[in-house]
Amino acid sequence: MDLAKAAFSPWDDGGLVPPHVPDALQTESFRSAWRLVDERGRLPRSLEPDALGDPGDYQIVVAAFPGRKVSAAALPLSGRCA
């Protein structure tokens, strides 16, 4: 993530506010119909449906940290209004 472009995210946030991630330099999120990220924050290695995780309604959160480290998480949105 480029901090200079933080105000111009390429992702549609779907009206969701990214959660506060302590120590993150930048946090972005987008709405997804697929989990995309496993419990360990790993992205799929293929585009096959089984690799994308469970279908549903998720907020995918990506956070950049000092030292060029990036973390990702899939937050379920079930029960929230779209």
Structure explained in plain terms:
This protein has 82 residues and is mainly β. The protein has no helices and 3 strands. A 3-stranded antiparallel β-sheet has the order 1-2-3, with no helix packed on it. A hairpin with a 3-residue loop joins strand 2 (55-65) and strand 3 (69-76). It starts with 25 loop residues before the first strand and ends in a 6-residue tail after the last strand.
Structural topology:
Blueprint: E1 26-34, E2 55-65, E3 69-76
Low-confidence stretches: 1-5
Largest sheet: 3 strands, antiparallel
Structure classification = mainly beta
The coarse silhouette is: globular
Mean pLDDT: 80
Compact overview of the structure:
The chain is an all-beta fold. Helices cover 0% and strands 34% of the residues.
Which characteristics define this entry?
three-stranded antiparallel beta sheet; mainly beta; 82 residues; disordered N terminus; single chain
